[in-house]
Structures are given as structure tokens and as C-alpha cells.
Automatic annotation (TrEMBL):
UniProt keyword Disulfide bond present: yes
Keywords: Disulfide bond, Hydrolase, Membrane, NAD, Transferase, Transmembrane, Transmembrane helix
Gene of this entry: LOC114454292
Species classification: Eukaryota, Metazoa, Chordata, Craniata, Vertebrata
GO CC annotation: plasma membrane
Bilayer-spanning residue ranges: 16-39
The keyword Membrane belongs to this UniProt entry's keyword annotation: yes
Broadest EC class assigned to this enzyme: hydrolase
Molecular functions per Gene Ontology: NAD+ nucleosidase activity, cyclic ADP-ribose generating; phosphorus-oxygen lyase activity; transferase activity
EC number: 3.2.2.6
Organism domain of life: Eukaryota
Protein name: ADP-ribosyl cyclase/cyclic ADP-ribose hydrolase
InterPro entries in the record: ADP-ribosyl_cyclase
Family note: Belongs to the ADP-ribosyl cyclase family.
GO biological process: positive regulation of B cell proliferation
């Protein structure tokens, strides 16, 4: 009886093991299939977004622009995409000079874009074709692959030459080089250093404002109730020193509430908003 009991127990354990292994294999298969489908969806997700945004700007060969965009990073180490890799993309969709209308920003993206959406008198980088197409997107390539991925990509600070950071540095440089006439920048008065040396505005854009093409720079220092910085802030004195000789400088402290009220009032012209 005891021998028979042991044999039954062995057969029961064997069935449990077989069932357990089958369940594990089934779970692995389902997860792998789901992950594979997810990767296929993710790696192609950016193209329709890119093209649909591009097509809102008439007179452009959006497929050609997409091809120039992809060539910058596909089959590349996602931490080794230099700024100049986007030169062909900039050439395919160059920035146009918008004298007296170009608006730059640093740490004020929300208030700036709320303003430009309601008032058609300024243009930011994100209002241009390339800036609009890629605003808010993440992308990268992988060595040995011709695909574009939107997951598993390095973050902004993970490595200096990642695809997204290199693009915005290159596009910002080209946008600033197109600046002419009176230029405006909105800076954040609620932070300790509104003109921060590590910002794109300080490290890339200001350095490309050239007199006499650019005649003057107006700083709109966006203030809040509990403001930190003023137009007398030391970092803004550094900004003034950075400007090319011949570019006039002006700074105005403007409450965010006034900017928002002005942008929402169709009877107020942009020139009187600050």
C-alpha cells in the first residue's frame, strides 16, 4: 500500500510540474507577443504624427523632410547623434526670417504658447514647421536597425548627444540665426536665474543674434505674486553683456495675469501688452 501511495504521489507531483511549466510558457509567450506588438506599434507611431503635422504647412514635400529627419539618427547609437547630423533636415525645411516677430523663451513655454495661439503677431520656434512637427515627441534609433523608436530612448540629460537634444539645439541655432529687427524673449521671473547659462536661450540662441541684422532685444520678465527676480537681476546683466555690440537692450517686468488678459482681448494690440 505504501509503495502504491508513493507512486501516486510521484505521478501527482509530475502532473503539477508539467502544468506549472505549461502555464509559465504560456505567460512568457503572451507577454512576448504583446511586447513585440507594442514595439511594432511604438516604433512606427511617430511617422503618421510627423506627416500629419507637416501637411498643415502647405507647399512642402513632407516625405522628403521625413527622410531627412530619419537619416540623422537611424542605425545610430542613441547617445552619439551630433548636432550637425540634422543639417540636411534644416536644409530641407529652412527657417524664414520674420523680422520684428520672432519670440524666444526660457522656462515660460506655457505662457508663451498661450499668447502666440491667441495673438498672431509673434512666432516661436514651435510655431515653425520643424518646431511644430517635433514638439513634445521623443525618438531615437538603434545600431543595426533602420527603424524609429519612441520608447527606450535616452532622456534629455542622460547623454549630451541624444537625438532629441541635438535636434532642439540645432533647430534653435537655425531659428536664432534667422532673427532680424526687434527680437523679444520671455523669461521666468519666478526663478532665481532667469537667464541661466545652461539654457538653450543662453548657450545657443543669444550667441547668434548679430548686429545690425538684429537691432534690439526686449526681455519680458514674466512675474508672479511671489516673484524672485527683477530686471536688475545679475543674470540679466550677464545677458546684456552677451549681446553683440549694436543691439539695444530693454527689460520689462510684466505680470503673467496681464499677459494672459492681453492675449485674450482681441481689441488690444500686441505692442501694448508690455
Amino acid at each position: 500500500m505504501e509503495v502504491e501511495h508513493r507512486q501516486k504521489e510521484k505521478r501527482r507531483r509530475r502532473r503539477c510540474v508539467i502544468v506549472g511549466v505549461a502555464v509559465v510558457l504560456l505567460v512568457i509567450t503572451v507577454l512576448s507577443l504583446g511586447l513585440g506588438l507594442g514595439l511594432r506599434r511604438e516604433k512606427h507611431q511617430i511617422k503618421p504624427v510627423f506627416l500629419s503635422r507637416c501637411e498643415k504647412f502647405s507647399g512642402n514635400n513632407c516625405q522628403k523632410i521625413w527622410d531627412a529627419f530619419q537619416q540623422a539618427y537611424v542605425n545610430q547609437d542613441p547617445c552619439k547623434v551630433p548636432v550637425e547630423a540634422y543639417d540636411p533636415l534644416i536644409a530641407a525645411a529652412p527657417f524664414k526670417s520674420e523680422c520684428n516677430r520672432m519670440l524666444f523663451w526660457s522656462k515660460t513655454k506655457d505662457v508663451v504658447h498661450d499668447f502666440t495661439e491667441k495673438k498672431d503677431c509673434f512666432i516661436t520656434l514651435e510655431d515653425t514647421l520643424l518646431g511644430s512637427v517635433l514638439d513634445g515627441l521623443t525618438w531615437c534609433g538603434k545600431e543595426g536597425s533602420s527603424d524609429t523608436f519612441t520608447t527606450g530612448c535616452p532622456g534629455w540629460t542622460d547623454c549630451e548627444n541624444n537625438p532629441v537634444r541635438s535636434f532642439w539645439n540645432r533647430a534653435s541655432a537655425a531659428f536664432a540665426e534667422a532673427a532680424c529687427g526687434a527680437v523679444t524673449v520671455m523669461l521666468n521671473g519666478s526663478i532665481a536665474t532667469p537667464f541661466h547659462p545652461a539654457s538653450i536661450f543662453a548657450s545657443v540662441e543669444v550667441k547668434r543674434f548679430k548686429a545690425p541684422i538684429v537691432t534690439n532685444l526686449t526681455v519680458v520678465l514674466v512675474t508672479e505674486k511671489h516673484n524672485v527676480a527683477r530686471c536688475t537681476d545679475p543674470s540679466l546683466k550677464d545677458l546684456r553683456k552677451e549681446l553683440d555690440k549694436g543691439i539695444q537692450y530693454n527689460c520689462k517686468e510684466v505680470p503673467r495675469s496681464e499677459i494672459e488678459a492681453c492675449s485674450s482681448n482681441p481689441n488690444i494690440t500686441c505692442g501694448t501688452c508690455w
